[in-house]
Amino acid sequence: YSLIVKKLKNSKMVFLLFPVSFFYSPFWFTSEPQDTMAVRGGLALLNCSAHSDSAVARVEWKKDGTFMTLASDERRKLLADGSLLISQVVHSKHNKPDEGTYQCVATIDNLGSISSRVARLSVAGMPRFTSQPAPAAVRPGDSQVLPCDINPDLAPFTRWEKDRQSLELGSRLVQLPSGALLISNASESDAGQYRCLVENVGQTKASEEAQLQLTPGKHSVVDTGVLLLPCAATGFPTPSVRWMLNDKVLDESLLISNLTEEDAGLYTCVAHNGIDNTPPQFVKRPANIYAHESMDIIFQCEVTGSPAPTIKWVKNGDAVIPSDYFKIVREHNLQVLGLVKSDEGFYQCLAENDAGNIQASAQLIILDGLSPDPTLSSTSAPTPPRDVVASLVSTRFIKLTWRPPAEPHGDDLTYSVFYSQEGTSRERVLNTSRPGEMQVTIQNLMPDTKYRFRVVAHNSNGAGESSAALPVATQAEVQVPGPAPSLQAVANTPTSVSLSWDTPLTGNGEILIYKLYYTDQSLGTEEDLETDTLSYTMNGLKKFTEYSFRVVAYNKHGPGVSTQDVNVRTLSDVPSSPPQNLSLEVQNSKSIMLRWQPPPPGTQNGEILGYKIRYRKGTRKSEAAEITRDTNLYLLIDGLERGTEYTFRVSAATLNGTGPATEWNTAETFESDLDETQVPDIPSSLHVRPLVNSIVVSWTPPENQDIVVRGYSIGYGIGSPHAQTIKLDYKQRYYSIDNLDASSHYVITLKAFNKVGEGIPVYESAITRPQSVPDPSPMLPPVGVQASVLSHDTIKVTWADNSLPKNQKITDARYYTVRWKTNIPANTKMKTANTTSLNYMVTGLKPNTLYEFTVMITKGRRSSGWSMTAQGTTFETIPSSAPKDVTVVSKEGKPRTIIVNWQPPSEANGKITGYIIYYSTDVNAEVHDWVIEPVVGNRLTHQIQELTLDTAYYFKIQARNSKGMGPMSEAVQFRTPKSKEEVTSTPFALGFNWTNIPPGSLNVIQLYHRMSPPPTSGKPGGADNILVIVIIISVGAFTIIVVVVGAFLCTRRTTSHQKKYSSTNGSHKYKGNSKDLKPPDLWIHHERLELKPMDKSPDPNPAMTDTPIPRSSQDITPADSGLDSVTHLKTMPLSHISTRQLSTRCVKVSWYRGTYHLVITLSYTHIKAYLHQGTPSNTLSHSYSYGIIDARCCLASHCMHVCLYTGPPSHPHVVKTASIGTLGRTRTPVVVTVPNAPDVPETSKMLEDVDSSYEPDELTEEMAHLEGLMKDLNAITTAP
């Protein structure tokens, strides 16, 4: 079974359940017969074949509308596919049995029949030449006609041969309709033997051969100086003939005497009989229909053609005869009223005119009825409606009323009224318009006719039982007139239509007046007028507009029956308005592009066939060139003069002529072809002059005049120049910005633009002058402003206006301005919108954002203040951008573990509740093939373990919020190390890699600092004792300073704002001598590696300079050796380092933030770090020599590898610094404190002492302690 849902006129839904066998059965013609020409005694074949999925169709043939009997016919046979073959065509003067019209009919039993188009079979006699080609001579360049006159019906079957070879026709060789051959502009190649042949109509027949020769010499016109050009044509109706010289109309037969050079030109003979034969074409084909018994249906069919095609409807091969139940409506549509089972079948629309005929079919399936639901109880349907009565009976309508069923079994009952004319089996249905309604008026009934009515109730379970049939007879119509017959409407002019009609056949007394109703189809409103005659001419109608007319006759009893509508379109005329929006765009020094829009639709007055463009040099009256174009809305005019001003105007043309033209528009070509491969430069100046409600802006063009400037763009607004934008011509140098607010601060920007884009803007600001006379009675602002959130980007703002009546109805020209912005203190940009209602829908907002709304009233020149603020937060939506800054690094000591870091999406559109990390070894794999790792929303880093060594992985991250998942990030590639040894031996220096290191060389960082002489004495192992003491003192000092700083901060909260501001500004300054100054901060950047001192030191010789990092050792250049302190980076070959030189020594790196700094001690065998409270202590200024330190640590999620080479530098160098790529938020700058360099011998000794003082267990303990300090450091640096 299949379920069909159908909506009735009263908006009630009907559910139709029927077997699958009721589906439409495809049934159509795969080939149809075509018009055919046959020869007496020859063969004729008329093709026809039909297709159906259900069964094989049976094909029959009709000749001249009557079925043919082919079983006993020996000459005419039905082929297997349904085609008709006629052998030995019979045709004589008094016996023409085979000539006529043929139509095939395909039938499938129990389904229906379809008919093909009608084809005409014509029989020609034996070919007879009435004239044949004759020998001729022609001069080069002249024309020659070789005759070949044959039976007119065989002319299409003729062809020509030259020297027994088929002749190819072209622009010079043309075969005329009569069969003759026209040779134009003769040349030597045209000489030869010619003959014509008749083919494809029996045996081929050829004419006699004729020799065409070329005679020497040229010949243009006759030597007598007189030229006669005859022109004749035949046809029905008789065509009119005229000659045209170029575009000028001449006489019918052209006789030119005293030929001169002025008579030279193109002469054209034009014949026209006013008939344009176009075969029919379907605009709308009939469609298949499912319907239930008693319903009304309409098959639509719309056809075009010239002459206008006639429409005929056929049902199962038989013509449909109009009746009370089969009606032709709206010219061509077929309406079937009160369907019965016998109406089922195939309906065809056949259209025919003099140029041909076509057909289209549709199937009608009648459903047996609603299939009951076996799960429903038999008592669930309503019982019959009660007390059905005809409360009002007229000549053409009856009003029925009833009471609800005794047992409705539900609420909201609807009703269907079935009615039929007595003595017929057709029953029609009419449904009530709304639930619970218990009356209906049945219209369009016949006078003095008996009808039977019954009512059925429907509830949610379906249709109930029917009431008993109620017979009712309409009243006899003897008082009012019948319809006026023969209503005709003819368009006389573009604004008038003549109508005529006859006296009603059933007048029922004297006709007093006729009321003429007419409707403009473009508007749909009906108007009427009265007349007492049988004709009327309507004037003052719209041009080229379709109208419908109907007539109603009146007698003393009232209006009679209306006629059917008659449609007619008024004639076309020239356009009454010029084209719109003409614009000129200078392309270069020699061309200008014109663009325009058609005239307004109501003023075109016909179909626009083209446009006429006129242009001239300068603005004064001079000779204007004229160009006629097609329906394109643009034109490029080239070949103009450089640096010349031209004026243009455009007019539209219809079949009736050319309408008014636009105003003259002016444009000037460039002096030279300027550059338009880049945007214009900034305008050289911008001046503003504020007034009360306007600002006058003036400017000068860019200084670089070699770049094309096509115009200027002015942006302006209160506080922002992006509120309004105005585009101006490139010639304009000033503009007045009007309708501004008084006493308001406006920001104005000006940009020059061309086809590439807009140039750099120039900015100005101005404050409009205050109002001289304030408004004595300001309006009250709106009240009760509410913001209702509708979606993630839409908020509806509503309010009330106390100055309106209680019903809040707006009757004057006031309007409301809604202003809104986000609730972010840094965002001062506001948006506004105007409306004339008491609500406004604000769209295009950002998701999960709090907005503030205020409203203002404006009436004339009076405005209220802004209302109270209403707030609303838009709903969340899925993230619209992916997580950013995705980086992948290997974990220290675990080559199969990596750490993925990222930042939240820029457009999260809500609170991020989690992330999903996708990773795969194939970047092109499907998403479902990637491995996923979920991460909670407050994490921005994640470890992935157990990866395969020496493998390239690809990582993507996707964020989610409460509304769903956002887009994925771009894939990031990372290759895991080959082995654990590779991880520990990979060279690093302050977080950046040195790769491709040649064998035998070592990347070395040399750090040294010139200082005062080192201590001259010390005991062995003293460095170890000092280090332990420093650690103990630092931990104690850290605890004490935390308490002191906490108390100090609480005390500072009570100071004044100004003192607090001064204290804040001074917190980063240090007093004392130069050695107490804060060392320079090491700023880390991704792209450029540099060391920038943040605080200016009073020392004229700074310790560090900003220098980019070199790419190789050759890039390092010596610096000035006269500097007091220098730091340098150097790469030295491994062969330069002796065993004696590889002694170790500690190096301390200081990290400073606020009142805390981290001291990291690095040696060849271990790394040691601790936090120290306060400013960097003097312990960081001890003098150490430079040596090699091979150690690795993680500092705030960054790895660094530091190598210090022991040995005197060859010469001082400028410091070379690298930057660590930031993962996560920006870190606090790291301060590197470089110790001064003592003499080499003592330094080497100190390094040896330190190295020998640490045991392996102690080193392991120190490394574990350092790892904890690194975690604390990471937490400090990421704290907000």
TrEMBL record:
<keyword id="KW-1133">Transmembrane helix</keyword>
<dbReference type="InterPro" id="IPR010560">
    <property type="entry name" value="Neogenin_C"/>
</dbReference>
<dbReference type="InterPro" id="IPR013783">
    <property type="entry name" value="Ig-like_fold"/>
</dbReference>
<dbReference type="InterPro" id="IPR003599">
    <property type="entry name" value="Ig_sub"/>
</dbReference>
<dbReference type="Pfam" id="PF13895">
    <property type="entry name" value="Ig_2"/>
</dbReference>
<feature type="transmembrane region" description="Helical">
    <location>
        <begin position="1026"/>
        <end position="1050"/>
    </location>
</feature>
<feature type="domain" description="Fibronectin type-III">
    <location>
        <begin position="578"/>
        <end position="672"/>
    </location>
</feature>
<keyword id="KW-1015">Disulfide bond</keyword>
<dbReference type="InterPro" id="IPR003598">
    <property type="entry name" value="Ig_sub2"/>
</dbReference>
<feature type="domain" description="Fibronectin type-III">
    <location>
        <begin position="781"/>
        <end position="877"/>
    </location>
</feature>
<dbReference type="InterPro" id="IPR007110">
    <property type="entry name" value="Ig-like_dom"/>
</dbReference>
<keyword id="KW-0812">Transmembrane</keyword>
<keyword id="KW-0325">Glycoprotein</keyword>
<keyword id="KW-0677">Repeat</keyword>
<feature type="domain" description="Fibronectin type-III">
    <location>
        <begin position="484"/>
        <end position="573"/>
    </location>
</feature>
<feature type="domain" description="Ig-like">
    <location>
        <begin position="127"/>
        <end position="213"/>
    </location>
</feature>
<dbReference type="Pfam" id="PF06583">
    <property type="entry name" value="Neogenin_C"/>
</dbReference>
<feature type="domain" description="Fibronectin type-III">
    <location>
        <begin position="882"/>
        <end position="979"/>
    </location>
</feature>
<feature type="domain" description="Fibronectin type-III">
    <location>
        <begin position="679"/>
        <end position="772"/>
    </location>
</feature>
<dbReference type="InterPro" id="IPR003961">
    <property type="entry name" value="FN3_dom"/>
</dbReference>
<dbReference type="Pfam" id="PF07679">
    <property type="entry name" value="I-set"/>
</dbReference>
<keyword id="KW-0472">Membrane</keyword>
<feature type="transmembrane region" description="Helical">
    <location>
        <begin position="12"/>
        <end position="29"/>
    </location>
</feature>
<dbReference type="GO" id="GO:0098609">
    <property type="term" value="P:cell-cell adhesion"/>
</dbReference>
<dbReference type="Pfam" id="PF00041">
    <property type="entry name" value="fn3"/>
</dbReference>
<feature type="region of interest" description="Disordered">
    <location>
        <begin position="1093"/>
        <end position="1117"/>
    </location>
</feature>
<feature type="domain" description="Ig-like">
    <location>
        <begin position="280"/>
        <end position="365"/>
    </location>
</feature>
<feature type="domain" description="Fibronectin type-III">
    <location>
        <begin position="384"/>
        <end position="477"/>
    </location>
</feature>
<feature type="domain" description="Ig-like">
    <location>
        <begin position="26"/>
        <end position="115"/>
    </location>
</feature>
<dbReference type="InterPro" id="IPR036116">
    <property type="entry name" value="FN3_sf"/>
</dbReference>
<dbReference type="InterPro" id="IPR013098">
    <property type="entry name" value="Ig_I-set"/>
</dbReference>
<protein>
    <recommendedName>
        <fullName>Neogenin</fullName>
    </recommendedName>
</protein>
<keyword id="KW-0393">Immunoglobulin domain</keyword>
<dbReference type="InterPro" id="IPR036179">
    <property type="entry name" value="Ig-like_dom_sf"/>
</dbReference>
<feature type="domain" description="Ig-like">
    <location>
        <begin position="229"/>
        <end position="274"/>
    </location>
</feature>
<dbReference type="Pfam" id="PF13927">
    <property type="entry name" value="Ig_3"/>
</dbReference>
<comment type="similarity">
    <text>Belongs to the immunoglobulin superfamily. DCC family.</text>
</comment>
<dbReference type="GO" id="GO:0016020">
    <property type="term" value="C:membrane"/>
</dbReference>
